[in-house]
Fold this protein.
Amino acid sequence: MVHNCIIIVILCLHHSCGLTSLCGISSLIKKSYHFCCRKMDEIHRQVLQENLTYLQNNLSPENVLDKLFVAGIICPDQLMRLRKENETSTKSCVRELVVYMLPKAGSTAFAKFIEAVQASQHFVSDHLLGDEKQKMQQRLCAGNLYTV
């Protein structure tokens, strides 16, 4: 059982970070274990997806990337890729982060993203949290309250 989780972690890290070797991966395993083994809540995926255009127009990625890295949400390879992408196109950088990276980063990625955004762009985090609250209420009213 323990071996299966370790293999899943290695595969998750390999997939999400684009690692081609396992060098240095042991230091990432402890940091990333709980992120890879649980999925992001579907409501959080929807909030990110439905607010993509809003985020592309209002989010300054340079203000949140380091915070996401420190929180263990993105790995060094992803951080470098996003910084490079941000130099040429902020909208493309935000799309890469929101559509491809955050949903694969685990169950705590949305909360860590909100924390990172809140520190420098409170209005953006307020917008996302308002949408999340509305979707949670809809789920509750529909009788579909569940945990992932």
About this structure: Residues 1-15, 18-24, 26-36 have pLDDT under 50 and may be disordered. The domain at 39-141 is CATH 1.10.533.10 (Death Domain, Fas). The CA atoms of residues 40 and 107 lie 4 Å apart.
